[in-house]
């Protein structure tokens, strides 16, 4: 039997877990959409109720005490279990299923979400919640049932299903091509090269494949997402190397054009990843089958 007096406030636990994970009250406040003072107050309330100090505090940062480190690990897993139980309860109360999916921003907005109406037409009682994660994470500690991952099929404790390879093509706006008089790969030497942060060697590899010597392939503004690179290219800021499947609409409308047939096959690929215990969950299985079929269609 649970003793209610020993169960802390969930809001205080959320504030503590976010601060422990970020090592920063300000970043935790930003994540939780609270003020820093509110987060600090919740942590203080939690410490008062426990009778222990969870953090060492200084002007610049907060650091977990030994007790705080142990407590953070347990709180994180407990909150994940509570979230999962809550979603299951909602699912059983009239909805056929809830799928919490972590996606890469550009893949989600430009490829996946526009295709989701077909999935919902087949599964009208399903709910899919979208979150953003850029790197692999621990499914036990995060409230997700599956994720879209780019890279290699290595994710401890999870199954990786291949979705798409990544073929990047050099593109720019028609106006920028005319402005820079880009006719051959050599002409790109004088162009502004739009860089993608997670593909830092892409331009160097593309120029090597085109047999063009380039002094500094890393020059040019850097962007964290392909959607930003595409927008910058359409705005005439330079030329970008972008996966063709992410810019089909821009190419069809003429807002972007492929400069040359020479493309770059990335060493990584896109995968649907889900923890092994969820492999036979009905909604995960239905989403996996539908998604793989869609990627095979192109």
UniProtKB/TrEMBL annotation:
PANTHER family: GLYCINE CLEAVAGE SYSTEM TRANSCRIPTIONAL ACTIVATOR (PTHR30537:SF26), HTH-TYPE TRANSCRIPTIONAL REGULATOR (PTHR30537). Coiled coil: none annotated. Belongs to the LysR transcriptional regulatory family. This is Transcriptional regulator. GO terms for biological process: DNA-templated transcription. Keywords: DNA-binding, Transcription, Transcription regulation. Pfam families: HTH_1 (PF00126), LysR_substrate (PF03466). Residues 13-65 form the HTH lysR-type domain. InterPro entries: LysR-type_TF_proteobact-type, LysR_HTH_N, LysR_subst-bd, WH-like_DNA-bd_sf, WH_DNA-bd_sf. GO terms for molecular function: DNA-binding transcription factor activity; sequence-specific DNA binding. The keyword Transcription applies.
